[in-house]
Amino acid sequence: MIGSRLFTSSAAVSHKEAQKAQMKTAVATAAREKLVIGSRAFSSRLIIGTGKYRSHAEMRSAHDASGAEMVTVAVRRVPLDRSSESFLDHLNSALQILPNTAGCYSAEDAVRTARLAREALQTDLVKLEVIGDQTTLFPDNEQTLEAARILVKEGFVVLPYFNDDLIMAKKLLAAGCAAIMPLAAPIGSGLGVQNPANLRIMREQLPDATIIVDAGVGTASDAAIAMELGADGVLMNTAIAEAEDPAKMATAMKLAIEAGRLAYLAGRMRKRLYASASSPLEGVVT
Fold first, then answer.
1. Which are the catalytic amino acids?
2. Is this model's pTM higher than 0.90 or not?
């Protein structure tokens, strides 16, 4: 009987040691991983924005706290010729600029804006936005696909914003987009992930695609959920800029994305309808 207890105790210790080793491996794997977009690789999986901050200093502080390496810039809302002061003058020079075509309502307009951004900002990256409705700011997927095909042929690294539609995701990837950016909820709504099943299906059906959730994140738990569903990254602006303390929220988002990614890699436990005792009955002293 004593020998049996010792064996059970030894087995439990070995199991705990194995769990610790697995966790260390998972943490190390997450740390080594990179967010790959075209030929570029980033350590941070958070992409931040530049709008809605109350001051340039507040923006810079939030950017620094986020640990992000890429920042998106609305091309049509800044003086690209630097003729007057704008947030561009206050960005950390180490940040990779990701121009976006916000405010465009046709493929033609978006293509023209992307070309302008490439000339002015000297980058082939573009976050492609073609809006289809002024009230919801939902994307026009057909116009987005049309613009994507043109821009890819012209050598752009295209990251399209679109509805969380698996079929459109496949078409955008087939067109040559470097990554796809399904929305979580309407832009600036802060509603969080509204269709988790769609994002999960997209991840399972497109295992090799770079998926970056864009729009609708409101707080850290929303970012963690997106990452737990298998997203490769999250792009956000309003959730940080409109927080009472943007720098603190930026830090929270950084940690949430890291935690969500690690949870995804670790593998979630199976859900059960009924209880399952945390302490197994085997080896219980009676």
1. 127
2. no
